[in-house]
């Protein structure tokens, strides 16, 4: 399982190296219809949208980390999918945790097993605690480094705080 990002973030919070960002609770259902809440986001990187269950990592494909979608990227820049606060940036640069204004927390995880690159191929463009607007560049990716290492570029976008959410890119 590739849950190193979550483990690292929790260790940072527990050790005092990172402060958790307080955010209001996210809605689990649409109050008017009673249906699961639809979370409409800007697609965070250019590419083909693929179902989360097609991601070649069980932590994502099983839904264990939460619902979402994935992208087979063709672009090289990850942007904020909504107005948010950068809650955490993995030390290896491959994953970003965001808290949206409604309290929803997202994980954008670039590639599978890319934590093993120890930051090579990833250039963070923002820092933990930064407030960003939808479309703000968050991370530049050197695709040639990831391709040369033989890792999948598929990029899951997962809702960590709302197991009933339905994610849509638009």
From TrEMBL:
One of its GO terms (cellular component) is cytoplasm. Its main location: cytoplasm. Keywords: Kinase, Phosphotransferase system, Sugar transport, Transferase, Transport. GO terms for biological process: phosphoenolpyruvate-dependent sugar phosphotransferase system. SUPFAM superfamilies: Duplicated hybrid motif. It is found in: Cytoplasm. The keyword Kinase applies. Residues 57-161 form the PTS EIIA type-1 domain. The keyword Iron does not apply. GO terms for molecular function: kinase activity. Gene3D superfamilies: Glucose Permease (Domain IIA). This is PTS glucose transporter subunit IIA. The lineage of its organism: Bacteria, Bacillati, Actinomycetota, Actinomycetes, Micrococcales.
């Amino acid at each position: 399982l590739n849950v190193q990002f979550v483990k690292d973030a929790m260790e940072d919070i527990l050790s005092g190296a990172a402060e958790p960002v307080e955010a209001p609770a996210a809605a689990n259902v649409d109050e008017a219809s009673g249906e699961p809440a639809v979370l409409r986001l800007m697609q965070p990187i250019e590419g083909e949208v693929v179902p989360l269950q097609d991601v070649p990592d069980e932590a994502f494909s099983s839904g264990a980390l939460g619902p979402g979608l994935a992208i087979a990227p063709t672009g090289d820049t990850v942007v904020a999918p909504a107005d948010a606060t950068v809650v955490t940036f993995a030390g290896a640069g491959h994953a970003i945790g965001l808290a949206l204004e409604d309290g929803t927390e997202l994980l954008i995880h670039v590639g599978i097993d890319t934590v093993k690159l120890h930051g090579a191929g990833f250039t963070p463009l923002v820092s933990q605690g930064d407030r960003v607007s939808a479309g703000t560049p968050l991370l530049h990716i050197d695709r040639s480094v990831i391709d040369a290492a033989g890792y999948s570029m598929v990029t899951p976008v997962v809702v960590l705080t709302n197991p009933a959410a339905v994610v849509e890119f638009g």
